[in-house]
Specification:
The chain is an alpha/beta fold. It folds into 2 domains: about 35-240 and about 455-465, Aldehyde Dehydrogenase, Chain A, domain 1 (3-Layer(aba) Sandwich); about 245-435, Aldehyde Dehydrogenase, Chain A, domain 2 (3-Layer(aba) Sandwich). It contains 15 helices and 20 strands. The strands form 5 sheets. It has a 7-stranded parallel sheet, with helices on both faces. Helix 4 crosses helix 5 (about 90-105), helix 4 (about 75-85) runs antiparallel to helix 7 and helix 14 (about 380-390) packs parallel to helix 15. The N and C termini lie far apart (about 60 Å). One of its GO terms (molecular function) is acetaldehyde dehydrogenase (acetylating) activity. InterPro entries: Acetald_propionald_DH-rel (IPR012408), Ald_DH/histidinol_DH (IPR016161), Ald_DH_C (IPR016163), Ald_DH_N (IPR016162), Aldehyde_DH_dom (IPR015590). Keywords: NAD, Oxidoreductase.
């Protein structure tokens, strides 16, 4: 019997492809600077870039990252303005500042470390290796800043990435990625370390999630996309929702607490997932804290104004009988003056935050509203305040804040809340090193437990063992 060799070759190639062992196909993506309409092409280009990056040194990774940092810092005004004009949410000054913060404070190759175990039976070295191509979903709230932080973290770990940005932030994502890749290519000759889908869709996200050459998923977004990532069958790092509560007890420095609540809750019009969303205050200091808020520059809304604002800024979605309350899209990330007008009050455009007293059943308390109005709820004592904070944080274990000079109250709340970030006597951004200690990332993985992501988040452990040699202390084991 005669066999057609070409048929055999085709069958072998098909089998190899199906088991994930087909040789890489070089398709000439140089000069694209990471911009793709086709998700499959983007992943293939990122895979080629990963192979090239794998041949480079840690020092080369640092040079690559330095280009990303420098562009984020030097071009922050232009790129921040571009993001503000496209998304139309938040504050321009904070768009600009976020790019600089991510450029300066995102951890890089300095976070990589090896561990060594030495003893009678030789030496074991644990190193951190890359996964490969990482698929990323980024939010409209921080489109380019999230890409910046992810790129620094992931490339420091030796990976490349493919980004499916939020459609409302795609233009600035594309332009930022183009600039990053061009600078890297001009210096080191590697293109497409960061790839972005120019016209992102749910279909392109799904293809990235399930592509054979995507080794890992990183999602920064809402519950639906988080569930999709967790169901992808791949390792997923998921930055999920938050509804950060604040507790203020009777020992707090109330003026400091007020300034902190305004600084954190008003930052970028409350778009940060870590931002103060609702405040539970011990009754004995409630009225004085409200006065402190006004002294610090926030504007108080009365009960009827709050009712009017609630009726338009919180809406219901879902099928009949299965609806839930959510923030109305047209008010997310808008200025405090816009919210005040909706409530029937005219205030200065310089006001960062509006606030007012509500009970715990007002929708602004349970809903992650992402707008600069914060409800304040009276509580009998600190125990009630902490319990309400626990309840309305919804078990996200994301972020919680307390203002207190009582160490036991701080400790009690920390244990009960069990959140990834816990801030004491400061604004929420301090938890990310902005006015506090530590480092920054806008991918804060609470559902999957990695916390504030670093380069190590995107690596896998490899152990290399040498048996009965290179132990130069003591005497080697016998036998």
């Amino acid at each position: 019997m005669q066999f057609d060799e070409s048929i055999i070759r085709n069958v072998v190639a098909q089998v190899l492809a199906e088991v994930g062992k087909a040789p890489p196909v070089t398709s000439g993506f140089k000069g694209r600077y990471g911009i793709f309409d086709c998700a499959d092409e983007a992943v293939r280009a990122a895979r080629e870039a990963f192979e090239k990056l794998s041949e480079r040194t840690i020092e080369d990774r640092k040079r690559i990252i330095d280009h990303i940092r420098q562009i984020s810092i030097d071009q922050k005004v232009e790129l921040g303005t571009m993001e503000m004009n496209e998304t139309k949410i938040g504050k321009l000054a904070h768009k600009i500042e976020k790019l600089e913060l991510l450029g300066r404070k995102t951890p890089g190759v300095e976070f990589l470390r090896s561990e060594v175990f030495s003893g009678d039976h030789g030496l074991a070295v644990i190193e951190h290796a890359p996964f490969g191509v990482i698929g990323c979903i980024t939010p409209v709230t921080h489109s380019l800043p999230t890409i910046t932080g992810n790129a620094v973290n992931m490339i420091a770990g030796g990976n490349t990435l493919v980004v499916n940005p939020h459609p409302s932030g795609k233009k600035v994502a594309v332009e930022g990625v183009r600039r990053f890749n061009k600078a890297i290519y001009d210096d080191l000759g590697i293109d497409n370390l960061i790839c972005v889908i120019a016209e992102p869709t749910l279909e392109s996200a799904d293809l990235i999630f399930h592509h054979r050459d995507v080794a890992m998923i990183c999602v920064t977004g809402g519950p639906a996309v988080a569930r999709a990532a967790l169901n992808s069958g791949k390792k997923a790092v998921v930055a999920g929702p938050g509804n950060p509560p604040v507790v203020v007890d009777e020992t707090a420095d109330l003026d400091r607490a007020a300034r902190s609540i305004i600084q954190g809750g008003g930052y970028d019009n409350n778009l940060l997932c870590i931002a103060e969303k609702e405040v539970f205050v011990v009754n004995s200091v409630f009225d004085e804290l409200m006065r402190a808020m006004e002294r610090a520059g926030a504007v108080r809304l009365n009960a009827s104004e709050i009712d009017r604002l609630t009726s338009v800024a919180i809406t219901e979605v879902g099928d009949p009988g299965k609806t839930k309350q959510v923030a109305a899209k047209e008010f997310i990330g808008q200025d405090a003056a816009v919210l005040a007008r909706a409530a029937g009050k005219n205030i200065s455009s310089d006001v960062e935050l509006v606030f007012g007293e509500t009970d715990e059943h007002n929708p602004f308390v349970p809903v992650e509203q992402m707008m600069p109005f914060i409800p304040f709820v009276r509580c009998h004592d600190v125990d009630e305040a902490i319990q309400k904070a626990k309840y309305y944080e919804h078990g996200f274990r994301h972020t919680a804040i307390i203002h207190s000079n009582n160490v036991r109250n701080m400790s009690k709340m920390g244990r009960i809340m069990d959140t990834t970030l816990f801030v004491k006597n400061g604004p929420s951004p301090a938890a990310l090193g902005v006015g506090g200690e530590g480092y920054i990332s806008f991918s804060i993985a609470t559902p999957t437990g990695e916390g504030v992501t670093t380069p190590l988040t995107f690596t896998r452990e490899r152990r290399c063992s040498l048996i009965d040699d290179l132990c130069i202390l003591g005497h080697p084991a016998k036998g």
